[in-house]
Amino acid sequence: MTLNDARIAQQGLDTTHGAILYLEEISVVFDGFRALNKLSLDISVGELRCIIGPNGAGKTTMMDVITGKTRPTSGTAYFGQTMDLSRMSEHQIAHAGIGRKFQRPTVFEQHTVFENLELAMKLDKRVRPTLFARLSSEQRGKIDEILKLIRLNGSEQRLAGLLSHGQKQWLEIGMLLMQEPQLILLDEPVAGMSDAETARTAELLNELRGQHSIVVVEHDMAFVTEIAQQGVVTVLHEGSVLAQGRMEEVQADERVIEVYLGR
Amino acid sequence: MLRKLFLIACLCFARAGYAGIPPDMLAPLAGDDPDARVAAIAAIGALATDDATRLLTALQNGDVYTTPDGKLYIVTDDKAYNPATGAITAPPDGIDGIMINNRLRGAIEEALSALKMFSPDRAQRLAAVTELQKTATLAQAPLIEKALAREQDAEIRELLRLVAATANLQSPQAAKRKAAVEALADSSNANLRPALQAMLTSDADQNVRVAAAHTLQALDSRLARTEFVGNLFYGVSLGSVLLLAALGLAITFGLMGIINMAHGELLMIGAYTTYLCQLAFRRWAPDALDWYLAAALPAAFIVTALVGIVLERTVIRWLYGRPLETLLATWGISLILMQAVRTIFGAQNVEVANPAWMSGGVTVLGSLVLAYNRIAIIVFAALVVAGVWLILNKTRLGLFVRAVMQNRRMAGCVGVSTAKIDMMTFGLGSGIAGLGGVALSQLGNVGPDLGQGYIVDSFMVVVLGGVGQLAGTVIAALGLGEANKFLEPVAGAVLAKIAILVFIIIFIQKRPQGLFAMKGRSAE
Amino acid sequence: ADTIKIGILHSLSGTMAISETSLKDVALMTIDEINAKGGVMGKKLEAVVVDPASNWPLFAEKARGLIAQDKVSVVFGCWTSVSRKSVLPVFKELNSLLFYPVQYEGEELEKNVFYTGAAPNQQAIPAVEYLMSKDGGGAKRFVLLGTDYVYPRTTNKILRAFLKSKGVKDSDIDEVYTPFGHSDYQTIVANIKKFAAGGKTAVISTINGDSNVPFYKELGNAGLKATDVPVVAFSVGEEELRGVDTKPLVGHLAAWNYFESIKNPVNAEFIKKWKAYAVAKKLPNAATVVTNDPMEATYVGIHMWAQAVEKAKSTDTDKVIAAMAGQTYKAPDGFTLTMDATNHHLHKPVFIGEIRPDGQFNVVWKTPGPVRANPWSPYIPGNEGKQKL
Amino acid sequence: MNHPSLFSRRAWTGIVACAVVLAALPLLNLFFADGHALHVPSYMVSLIGKFMCYALAALALDMVWGYAGILSLGHGVFFALGAYAHGMYLMRAIGREGVYQSDLPDFMVFLDWKTYPWFWSGTDSFWVSLALVVLVPGVLAFVFGFFAFRSRIKGVYFSIITQAMTYAFMLLFFRNNTGFGGNNGFTDFKRILGYSISAPGTKATLYLVTLAVLLGALLLCRWIVTSKLGRVLQAVRDSESRLMFIGYNPLWFKLFVWTLSAVLCGIAGALYVPQVGIINPSEMSPANSIEMVIWAAVGGRGTLLGPIIGAFSVNGLKSWFTGAFPNLWLFALGLIFILVTRYLPRGLAGLVRKEQA
Amino acid sequence: MLQVEKINQYYGSSHTLRGVSLELEKGKCMALLGRNGVGKTTLLKCLMGVLPVSAGSVKLEGRDITKLAPHQRARAGIAYVPQGREIFARLTVEENLLMGLATHSGKKAHTIKGEVYELFPVLKEMLHRRGGDLSGGQQQQLAIARALLAEPKLIILDEPTEGIQPSIIKDIGNVIRLLRQRGDIAILLCEQYFDFAHELADQFMVLSRGEVVASGVQTVMNDPEVKRHLAV
Ligand SMILES: Nc1ncnc2c1ncn2[C@@H]1O[C@H](COP(=O)(O)OP(=O)(O)OP(=O)(O)O)[C@@H](O)[C@H]1O
Ligand SMILES: Nc1ncnc2c1ncn2[C@@H]1O[C@H](COP(=O)(O)OP(=O)(O)OP(=O)(O)O)[C@@H](O)[C@H]1O
Ligand SMILES: NC(N)=O
Ligand SMILES: [Mg+2]
Ligand SMILES: [Mg+2]
């Protein structure tokens, strides 16, 4: 455990001003290409925010910045009032309470479904506790519960690498739930799911609403409409916010139709 | 010594017509009293006849034979020439070659170079003057000045001027010494340092001491510059050797991801192919022997490429997607190849000679010798890199190769025969290793262990440059070469090598993906 | 048993195979030769060949195996000093016999070992004396160039002390080491050239066999000729030169106790037998095989051992050791060599040879007769009076 | 890659049986005279003692390679440092029985050194040397690993710098002036803790200690890999970045197993010196470290018994072949390596498991 | 054009495809539907030759291609857009497109037709960026473009709309429609986005646990009986 780790662990999350995530003037430049261009955004505690926008708008890049995968070229990113995400490493950010599902499903392919969930479980993730960790029956129960939720019960002893594309998506969502993060980032959670499954996912998100702050990126408009409800939908374009508002509003926005929805 | 040289000087101009070499001059040569032999050589040299030159040259080349009763013959092409009489006969029975040792060889060279200073052949004069630079003494000064007076060639004149000055350093007249010292301010001859140093502290004349200090300073700064340029060259040269050794690996390992522990053995096979080509030329085309490399290059490429293809088809192809296992299999291959060569060619090294045009070197900046074989290898490395770069980046084959290595399954789905590309890529990497082997054969041992000496360095070069990055491999090889060559004079070869390794470790901390790291998402 | 087993412990693979393989072959030839004459004490000799693969701990393991498992009476083997050091404890523990055929640094004397190669005073010192002589070029400055291991280090330590005793200043001695397998001698050759600018210089090379080719090639290309800066080598013999283009090397020197080019009937016979053996056994490159000093030392060693066994009428280690003292053998080097009564080293003649274009040596100097070994060099302080076991 | 059947009942039986047989060998050697049917030659005992040291090193290596996916091409350095640390004690235990009859080891006398250099201080104590056996490789591994893992050096990049490390150490130890006996290293030991090192009883003891350590290490490693930490290590191997996104810091996990592995390797080296009787810098040559990898690969990487089986079989074959077919053994060994990779992707251990399945 | 007869496939001991048969004609588009993990991707891989079948046969234009390797099938005229995009991450976008021309030769092998840029303008902008650096949707577009460039007789699309923005989904729909209308190409479309599939397909097939549980022409696709197999 480095000093930095210790500091963050002690600190805890400060959301006194009601927002859990602040992005301010974030720019990310790759060899001259601006993937994010002075993007500012904040997410309130308990909010479910949908983000849409054309391919290449910078949605995934934004998540990369939040989770520490990509360092912003300029701008600041804060988790709560006090945690400067740009100074934290990936594991510190995760530890502080941000969980993410990737656009392309990424699970531990050589581990079983069960182990994937076990590894993700919210526990002390330092070396010594990990060495001596043994699952309690309560923890087992929790895993079983999630297994049911993601409909992989019965497959818990299969290697995750052998799952189909859609099953991996679900497993990743399950891992996210095991982590019990305060802020959940979902990059295209229903890609590759059938309409029925999409509906179930929407249900699930609606259940989680309020308990966690959630950011969802999706191209499936029906799904977005379903979960956005009366909340704010943000449209990104060329690295910055193009439009923001309730779903009907953005859907009616000429510019959004032009660059994203099509006629 | 002094008298001897005056003799030479006088006789040079009074060139007699044909007269055999007096037998009493020849007799000591066949004897075994070293002092008498040295004296005889000087005396023969002093004759300054064509026969004398011929005899001395023959002696140098080991073409002089003696009969048991002490008669001398120059034997070439089954003809015996009697230098005492001028008669040409068949070689008599029972003749035995006359051995010379270093001391005699030195004496012969000295005699010949004095003779050659007046040779009509420019190259011979140049060689003679260059030789004299090392040894010029006051006694030779009049002779040198005469030569200077006759010399037309500007370059040789300049050299002669320096040689004359060198000789005059020991002049008893202070003015002459001073003039000599000043003239030498343009010299880059390190051999002058001790003499100048001595003058600096102990010359009787104040002016000479001042001049000596000045010249010494000029000389030293020129030597320092020469040394710097020398190190630069040595670095490029070492770098190009590393590059040639590593380039094949940059393909088989860098591109294909095979931890190819048998890479060194492919280099070795290339070198042995060179050896076989040389043997073939010796046997069937001795006149063209100097060009055996022209045949060795394609031969080595083809042979190692074929070996590579066989290995790929029989072993490696089962291991795609299991890169770590390739370490084990190729280690086994390496053991087998080494032992096979040991069984066929013996455990000893075999002889691979540099062609004549690659022997020796060109002198630049006065004293720096750039060896021809090193220059040739630098040029060759540049050509091979250019070729590989063209193949990989400018041809369809190169595109397919890169595609297959990145995503074998999808490459198949778009219609690329991955098996064929795998085979060709491994063949190409192996073939290039073979070319590297040809180059290595020109510098060092050709033996069963040849490859073992390069395998670690090759991996370091490829990894330091960034796996799969041709440009990185080139820079890494040259960088390591230069670093090594600038450290070695300071730290010695052992510590320099350690320092380089430590440097690699630290460097990778800064660039954990090598010099030319792939950035962004595509790197994952 | 009706045969006497003999262990042969030379690397047939790995880096040392280059040098050691031919020692194995010459040992087998010698054993055949002895057997053809009826063997020893009426029993045939039986060779047990193992491959310690240039791996020093494996030398110890194989030595133990030969002695304890195969029950050999004597072992002929080792080349590098470290391999010898590694097997020594085994020979001592199991009280067995090793014949070591290579020139080495001295500073050792073991009851269980017979040293048939040269000690420093039988090779290095005479070579330097020669270089300092008028015929040798009258060298005033010396570059001691070696591979970084114990043999060169020790030899150079002795030579430095020796040179000092001859009035050579420290500033006229340059000591340079390269790692094993070093192959880039550009800098070193440039430095030699620089050093040589300060006066008549000779290089004393203890470079390990492998690095010699690149060294000499560089030397030739840099235009340093034997007449300018002669190099005398202690590890370069006919076998090493087989793999070299010798034209640029002509005139450089080597010091040994035997050269193939020495003319005498015993040597002629030895060479003839070896060539015939190579052809008969289809050794690789049989047409170009050569003999060299360690091969002669092996040959002499085996014969002397056989004589000692005959004399002792037993292969018992202690009895053979006793019988070895004062053994003589008419060796290919042209002299009758004697095993010293007390120090287990051979009395050997010293030859200095210049490299010829054909890869053979032209003897330019030799001692009048065999020289007794001083394994404990008098030039190393504290060695006084340490000449016996 | 999860091994509930890692040590099946049959595997346990096998381990216990092997341990009993191995433990019996030196006793059979001591108690039955040469010529008796049950006599085991000392040569055999010392050979197997050596193999057990190799097996321990291979096991240690496989902990980092097989489980955490960190391929070290420099484990020879830890092995050798452990051996040198212990060798220093053994050298000093020679006392004045060296050729120069000095308090200093012969090579120091030879270098004209008058006293021990600082880094030899305390090594006359057996216990200090034992501490060094653990500390020297451990600290080196910790420091090296800390920086390398912190810089996120992975894959071949890590492998190559470990190779550079061992190579640099080899060159350093080759230098006589470094103070570890140069090329010759340490040899000609006389006694350990006052007992003659060549006495049969001492040898049997060393052998049994080695066996005990090997078994202990096997159990320790088993405990680790079956714990949750073991699963984290495997996750490091398969997808390190994913692991970070769920809140683990891979640095400490890697450092833990890396350092542990180095220490085990050092211990293997320390057990090796007195039994083999020599330690010198060639143990640090890159090729030696690669051979350790080969043992693990032949036996089966990512298993615990695999590396042990691999070390025994490769070295056993090598010992046998070099004596039985001195001219051909490289062909045979090379071919075996190729065949194992081709037909036994999970190594020899995979063969056993396949039969069980 | 494509005839698949009773193919079976196993992953180790699990029976993933059970006697799947299908027939697809030139100029027709078939939608392949089914829940997660029923074997859709597996079936497509078997058709492409990436996975071997244990029984059954695959015929293209009457020619048996069951035993052919993927590259031979590609040359026989099949193009494949796999699930998960599978673009060549370290090749540039342009080089990725050139790979789509791998089955062609001569001048044709070097000319990327402008049509693909009209369909996916973003590719033209990013011609020299590495494929792996593209956003998910951009990669998907690249994968489709690559397959189109091959000018195949049969194009296999595994969830081509995944991760693509709505306006471009419409464009892709238009392209598929166009291809279908041209009539010289058969299209096999595996799609979770029901409306999209419904709009484009001439016929459909539903898989469940490796078996064909429903199939027919487009008009019956909306039957509750069919939909039942898609519900969770
Ligand atoms: N390493 C990189 N180098 C160059 N360009 C990059 C790099 N990473 C991302 N980009 C570019 O940045 C832009 C934003 O990509 P990002 O993945 O954030 O888009 P997105 O909004 O998630 O799109 P999608 O909806 O398709 O997933 C894209 O145009 C992409 O090509
Ligand atoms: N390599 C494999 N080994 C074993 N089983 C596998 C493998 N790949 C896939 N499977 C299993 O085969 C079944 C079919 O997988 P497939 O990928 O074909 O499903 P799918 O219908 O394409 O699902 P999705 O809609 O999620 O993409 C799944 O249950 C999956 O877990
Ligand atoms: N003894 C030697 N030459 O190592
Ligand atoms: Mg995205
Ligand atoms: Mg699928």
From TrEMBL, chain A:
UniProt keyword terms in alphabetical order: ATP-binding, Nucleotide-binding, Transport
UniProt GO molecular function: ATP binding; ATP hydrolysis activity
One Pfam short name: BCA_ABC_TP_C
InterPro entries named in the record: ABC_AA/LPS_Transport (IPR051120), ABC_transporter-like_ATP-bd (IPR003439), ABC_transptr_urea_ATP-bd_UrtD (IPR017781), BCA_ABC_TP_C (IPR032823), P-loop_NTPase (IPR027417)
Residue ranges annotated for the ABC transporter domain, each copy included: 21-263
GO cellular component terms, semicolon-separated: plasma membrane
PANTHER family (alphabetical): CONSERVED COMPONENT OF ABC TRANSPORTER FOR NATURAL AMINO ACIDS-RELATED, HIGH-AFFINITY BRANCHED-CHAIN AMINO ACID TRANSPORT ATP-BINDING PROTEIN
Protein name: Urea ABC transporter ATP-binding protein UrtD
Automatic annotation (TrEMBL), chain B:
PROSITE patterns: HEAT_REPEAT
Pfam families hit by this protein: BPD_transp_2 (PF02653)
Biological processes, Gene Ontology terms: amino acid transport
Signal peptide: 1-19
GO cellular component: plasma membrane
Bilayer topology term: Multi-pass membrane protein
An MF annotation (GO) of this entry: transmembrane transporter activity
UniProt keyword list: Amino-acid transport, Cell membrane, Membrane, Signal, Transmembrane, Transmembrane helix, Transport
Intracellular or extracellular location(s): Cell membrane
Segments passing through the bilayer: 232-259, 291-311, 323-345, 365-392, 459-480, 486-508
InterPro entries referenced in this protein's UniProt entry, alphabetically: ABC_transp_permease, ABC_UrtB_bac, ARM-like, ARM-type_fold, BCAA_transport_permease, HEAT_type_2
The keyword Transmembrane helix belongs to this UniProt entry's keyword annotation: yes
Family the UniProt entry places it in: Belongs to the binding-protein-dependent transport system permease family. LivHM subfamily.
Designated name of the protein: Urea ABC transporter permease subunit UrtB
Protein's gene: urtB
UniProtKB/TrEMBL annotation, chain D:
Keywords attached to this entry: Cell membrane, Membrane, Transmembrane, Transmembrane helix
Bilayer disposition of the protein: Multi-pass membrane protein
Any GO CC annotation of this UniProt entry: plasma membrane
Chief location bin: membrane
InterPro entries: ABC_transp_permease (IPR001851), ABC_transptr_urea_perm_UrtC (IPR017778), LivM-like (IPR043428)
Molecular-function GO terms, alphabetical: branched-chain amino acid transmembrane transporter activity
Pfam families documented for this protein: BPD_transp_2
Subcellular location as annotated: Cell membrane
Keyword Membrane applies: yes
Metal-binding keyword on record: no
Transmembrane segments annotated in the record for this chain: 12-32, 38-57, 64-85, 126-149, 156-174, 204-225, 251-273, 293-312, 324-344
NCBIfam families the record matches: urea_trans_UrtC
Protein name: Urea ABC transporter permease subunit UrtC
Organism: Duganella alba
This protein's encoding gene: urtC
TrEMBL record, chain E:
Highest taxon of the lineage: Bacteria
Entries under CDD domains matching the protein: ABC_TM1139_LivF_branched
NADP listed as a keyword: no
Keyword Membrane: yes
Residues in ABC transporter domain copies: 2-232
Molecular function as annotated in GO: ATP binding; ATP hydrolysis activity; branched-chain amino acid transmembrane transporter activity
Annotated Pfam families: ABC_tran
Similarity field: Belongs to the ABC transporter superfamily.
Protein name: Urea ABC transporter ATP-binding subunit UrtE
Origin species: Duganella alba
Organism classification: Bacteria, Pseudomonadati, Pseudomonadota, Betaproteobacteria, Burkholderiales
Gene name, Swiss-Prot/TrEMBL: urtE
